[in-house]
Write a structure and sequence with these properties.
single chain; 146 residues; alpha+beta; Nuclear Transport Factor 2, Chain: A; 6-stranded mixed beta sheet; 3 helices; 6 strands; 40% strand
Length: 146
């Protein structure tokens, strides 16, 4: 009996370790996706936007406007050519919370040009379908300059 208890305990420990590794792997996947998206956003990469946002997206912009993926994609396609002053985007203080096939992320978005920096508090909800994470809800709030 004592051997069986040890065996069950070892099995539970291995399962917990595997679940933890899986959670870290999923968080790494989301972080990689976010970083690729931010790189693509800097150059208005339409394909990256299409990959990142779910078809049923609800996006609340920092200006207080709410819209879906179709409107977001249409605004990209009609956007003027990017200026020579390139903006880069990065995520600071990224927090990823996983709930099976749902993830909630929060971070401070930094948009930086040669002349200035802008900060936004962003939060998003991602859902995993067909082994791909996609954003179904997004909230951006402009912060005052630090």
């Amino acid at each position: 009996m004592k051997g069986l208890v040890k065996l069950v305990g070892a099995a539970l420990l291995l399962m917990a370790m595997a679940a933890s590794a899986s959670t870290e792997s999923e968080a790494d996947s989301i972080k990689t996706l976010l970083n690729r998206f931010l790189e693509g956003a800097a150059v208005n990469d339409i394909e990256m936007h299409d990959r990142f946002w779910a078809d049923d997206l609800v996006y609340t912009s920092s200006s207080g406007k709410r819209f879906g993926k179709a409107a977001l994609m249409a605004s990209l396609e009609s956007a003027p050519t990017l200026s020579e002053e390139k903006t880069t985007y990065s995520a600071e203080d990224l927090n990823i919370r996983l709930f099976e096939d749902v993830a909630v992320i929060t971070f401070k978005l930094v948009g930086e040009t040669d002349n200035e920096r802008h900060y936004y508090l962003n939060s998003g909800t991602l859902v995993k379908n067909d082994n791909e994470w996609r954003v179904v809800n997004w909230q951006a709030t402009h912060m005052q300059q630090e």
